[in-house]
Structures are given as structure tokens and as C-alpha cells.
Amino acid sequence: MDTSWAAMSGMSSVRHNYFHIIGNMKNSDAIAAYLALGQESRLNVFRMIVQRGDTGLMPSEIVERLGMPNATLSFQLKELLRAGLLLVERRGRNLVYRPNAARVHALSDFLLENCCGGQPCAPACTPPGLPLANKDNT
């Protein structure tokens, strides 16, 4: 069962599939995702869900941990889904929210797309513990 935001809202998922296949994010898509993360309580919800990984979280767990009213959480989850940052699936009577890892990685790639002008990255551009990237091995 497709439980992506596009499927749940009746929208075509073609745009999202194209993005994941080609790896070519539009500025407007990146802006929408970063705007969704630009609100503190929404960022806290997202980070909590990311920490749980593929296991995901039910809204009741988030409410319990963050002490957020149900209506507020519902709004925050809707915005994160709209931005494509979360995936949701139904497990019995419960909804479980998981991070959309492909989208999160794509946002990072979008920001670093032309890091160092396409040349091998200098040590200052590479996070500690990661090998230096080069044009052929990115």
C-alpha cells in the first residue's frame, strides 16, 4: 500500500519519483523542505522521528515525549509530510511516521552539489570521519 504524502493526498508521485531517479532537485523543493524545518517545534518532531529511523513513531509517542497538544502535532506532521520529509504508513489502527531518508540525503546533496567547484573536496569541506570525495567517487 502506497502511504506516501502524494498517494494520501491524491497527488501524483511522478514529481518525487523523477527527483529520486535523476537527483535533480528544484530550488522550490529545497525551499519547501527547509521552510518546514525552520520552525522549532517542527524541527524537534522531525529530529525525534529521524532518531527512531525506519521503526518510526506513532503520534501518541511524540505527544508523550514532547508534551505537544494533538492538534499542534497534527499540523506539524502535515507540514513535514507536505515537504516530503516524512513517510507515513498505517499499521492496524495506528499511523507510523518515518523519515524519508532519500529526501533528507537529497537535500544535503542539493546544498553540496557544486562544493569546491566540482573538484575533489578540500579537507575543510569534508566532515570528520568521511573520506575525501572526488568527482568520480561522490
Shape: elongated
For the largest beta-sheet, the strand count, sense and barrel status come to:
2 strands, antiparallel
Just give the CATH class.
Mainly Alpha
CATH superfamily: Winged helix-like DNA-binding domain superfamily/Winged helix DNA-binding domain
Helix content: 40-55%
Low-confidence stretches: 4-22
Helix/strand order, N-terminal first: HHHHHHEEH
Biggest sheet, spatial arrangement of strands:
1-2
Alpha-beta content class: mainly alpha
Helices, by number, come to 7
Q: Determine the mean pLDDT.
A: 80
Notes on the protein architecture:
This protein has 138 residues and is mainly α. The protein has a single domain, classed as Arc Repressor Mutant, subunit A (Orthogonal Bundle), CATH 1.10.10. The chain is built from 7 helices and 2 strands. Strands 1-2 form a two-stranded antiparallel sheet. A hairpin with a 2-residue loop joins strand 1 (86-91) and strand 2. The chain is elongated, with a radius of gyration of 17 Å. The protein starts with a helix and ends in a 26-residue tail after the last helix.
